[in-house]
Amino acid sequence: MTNNLVTLSSKNQVVIPRAAREALKLKPGQQLLVLARGDHLVMVPRPEDFVAKLRGLHREVWPQENGKNYLEKERDAWDD
Questions:
Q1: Is residue 9 part of a domain?
Q2: From CA 3, how far away is CA 16, in angstroms rounded?
Q3: A GO molecular-function term, please (predicted)?
Q4: Domain limits at 44?
Q5: How far is residue 2 from each of residues 5, 24, 29, 80, measured CA to CA in Å?
Q6: d(CA 70, CA 73)
Q7: Are 24 and 45 in contact, with CB atoms under 8 Å apart?
Q8: What is the DSSP string of the chain?
Q9: pLDDT digit string (tens) for 2-32?
Q10: Which CA distances in Å does 49 have to 3, 27, 29?
């Protein structure tokens, strides 16, 4: 993890330090998501495929359930 101090320019721009760019393998023109979290600002590389990035997220919440079975149960409940 790299820790660097950056300065906000008069055009409201910041330069991402080289060590951070290299650590995250950022390329010129690559998009970043900018998130305001309370009093923090978080920049995250934009995933190329959001669906692939989110696949399996919170799987531990329903360990014995899979998506297809869950959808079928929900659809069947509407038919009753």
A1: no
A2: 11
A3: DNA binding
A4: 18-79
A5: 10, 10, 21, 56
A6: 5
A7: yes
A8: ---------TTS--PPPHHHHHHHT--TT--EEEEEETTEEEEEEPPS-HHHHHTTTTGGGSTT--HHHHHHHHHHHHH-
A9: 688 999 999 999 999 999 999 989 999 999 9
A10: 28, 17, 17
